[in-house]
Model the fold of this input.
Amino acid sequence: MLGLAWFLISNTLANLELRRIASGFGFLGREAGFEIGESFFLRYGAADSYLRALVVGLANTLAVSAIGIVLATGLGTVVGLGRLSGNRLLRGLCTAYVEFVRNVPLLVQLFFWYAVITETLPIAREALEPLPGVFLSNRGIFFPTLSGTPVLQGFNFVGGSSISPEFAALLLGLVTYTAGFIAEIVRAGVLSIVRGQWEAAQAIGLTRAQTLRHVVLPQALRVIVPPMTSQYLDLTKNSSLAVAIGYPDLVSIANTTVNQTGQAIEGIAIIMGVYLTISLTISAFMNWYNARVLR
Amino acid sequence: MRRFFTWNSLFTLVLAALLLKALVSFVDWAFIDAVWRPDSKACRAAGGACWGFIADKHRFILFGTYPYEEHWRPLISTVLLVALWVLSGFRFFWKPRLIAIWAVGLTAIGVLMWGGVFGLPAVENERWGGMILTLILFTFGVAFAFPLAILLALARRSTLPAIRTLAVGYIELVRGVPLISLLFMSSVMLPLFLPEGVGLDKLLRAQTALILFAAAYLAEVVRGGLQAIPKEQYEAADALGLTYWQRTRAVVLPQALRIAVPPLVSTFIGFFKNTSLVVVIGLFDFLSTVKTSLNEPAWTGFGVEAYFFAALVYFAFCWPMSLYSRGLERAR
Done:
């Protein structure tokens, strides 16, 4: 084992020497020199440092993951309960949804949604306006904020706030995909509650919806929370597929950084360190929540 | 009156109406207004789907850049490989002879794909692509990851702290990071680890990353099987005076693996879907050939059809596997 480690390390050092790559994290302070398509919360320009670029990437990852987790939980719960509904049509529809979404690679679904948004939505000039001030086009979704409303200028909208096609496709793909898995977890959780609980609730005159809300779901949460944690972790890791459709997440920016600087080991170390930290944080939070549910 | 009209029946009606409307517009798009001829001008003029794109590019999508006259070779290989997997699904074949069948099958596929013997022109593996590449990445990924996973699972349950720590560290590290970062790592970092002059081609590097990734996930499934074995089995084996490896090979593993088959199949499905990620490091697997076909100027802008088709193909592989896995679970 030690021999193998020594072999790998000595090879690596020799190779680094050969390629004149200085190891260390000194490169983080240098000017990045590339633009980033969009960023949440932070301002960034090409003159900023690599460190700032990576932080912007991290913020983008966290934003899409956090929103995705919330939406996927909602959709997944609805579909999971739908699979248990007494309504045969609804049940069949939810089952078909779950089966299809779970058996197609996420990347294919991302490409599909990206194509739907960029190919079937009209150009900015002919944008759809489902609500006053909200514009849907192949340049993304534009909506008014307190600071102003979007106005068509040239080939695109200016003012207001916007969601890029990349972000929308990534979010749509992550949410619909993960919801399929969450639905199964919710369904299994509800099924784990014994019949007697339903009957008892009915006997004291609760409706089906009341039973679900006050009797079944609180108990089902004990079964649901642990596997839900791994779904949240998966969603966060899967957000790295962003690189394939051009959303600037952490992995995508780290990859650009590695290509520009040649600091492969440091780049990978940063990705791994960040994802491990995110994983541990989500796990810790879910363990805390699980302990609360069990009490 | 209350019995006749319920909220439930109203809901059913509304849902049925919406569903019917969606179905009608889907049928319009996919069949009635669709263009089936490989004619991109007609496609752009029509309002429906453009299946002509698939008709025109199907050879490239299925076989990648493999020489055109030799396409029968990846075709036979694909059929052979699928047949091997189907065969392995039957309990009847779960015997040592299955390994012999696989060895013969894979040799035949290797000969067909590489060629260079029996008068077949040689084709280097940079030109492999399409469906067969997806299946090869999957098959070899499973074949190498599985033994590695068994070793990792055993190591994680070892009584030696050093070995246990290494196994836990490896498994948790790999499971904690996205597959994409491992693929990037394999394409930029593996060359740094190897001595000068030793090079791995792109396919082999991606395959290595996929194996290392799958092994960590499979190890956890195998560990689940190991944990289900009652303590008495170990004690009985020890009482017979078996050594650790004898006990593991003859008593523990056969039972543990049998228990672990349904979750193993689920993990295989996940792995099959994950092979599509090699598109980001520029390998020509099935998804990648679909994506590349769209780059041709005549066919840009037909992504919806292209990826819908890709989704159906992946579904055709994954859905039977998941039905099979559920069947096994019920049969237990």
